[in-house]
Write a structure and sequence with these properties.
The chain is an alpha/beta fold. Helix content is about 35%, strand content about 15%.
Amino acid sequence: MSESQGVGMSSCCLSGSVHEGEPTGHVETIGGIPTYVSEPKDGSKTKTIIFIVDIFGWEFKNVRLLADNYARAGFYTYIPDVHKGDSLPLSFLQNVEPRLADQEQLTLVDKTKNAAIVPATLGPWLVTHREAVSRPLIDGFVNAVRMIPGTNKIGAIGFCWGGRYAILQAHGRKGNDDASSSESSGVGGVDAAYACHPSLVAIPGDFEPVTKPLSLALGTKDSLLDQGSVGKIQDLMAKKTDVPHEIRLYEDQVHGFALRSDWSSEKDKEAMNEAEKQGIDWFNKYLS
């Protein structure tokens, strides 16, 4: 599968808010990767979810708080450090692009400054964490989790940069040598996936090979996935009558809303809560 091409990443991926509360999980090393783990009350690994993070990485408080919520809903959750200690700093979260409500207040100088910062920051990072590097690492982590005693079905949830990799995991397990290899002997691949405002997706390349249940949460004001692209994805998935899928559009939501919504806005907070419910419902249905 070729890597995504011709799709840029704007400063919108760097916008959002840090949420209140303290994570309640713990850190382990799994498959050689530092991993945040949050367990359900009964400790069952029957329904397992791997979180594939955005550019801010596995230590970002918001994603850990969300994993805790999924654990409270009965899922055994993992957040691996798929950036190998090289996530972007949280300082970019607030100062590169303000909330949607504040964008009209930006001066031309501010906008020009932001436009220059984004490619200078993201360009080298995206090269370092290109698909040829990141996908094998994520596949290997999925394999490591499958070997943990008690693990049954596995889901992947991804956000922004990680959203694309959740979609790739919905391609199913891939043979080590050729397409004829049995799925059980392959690498990577999950039983169901959920992608929230994925970025850098290749259309149709990332969606045509999907074979596992896939849910998508997309904002109608996502600067990284315009409505024309959303329409193409809807058309592609509609042809997959044998693959369970859903695409839910969130009105007036920007890129990052499912993980970094502004909690001072009731509409944004409601969208984030609904996106969380969407994922929990999806995984309860397809990991049971």
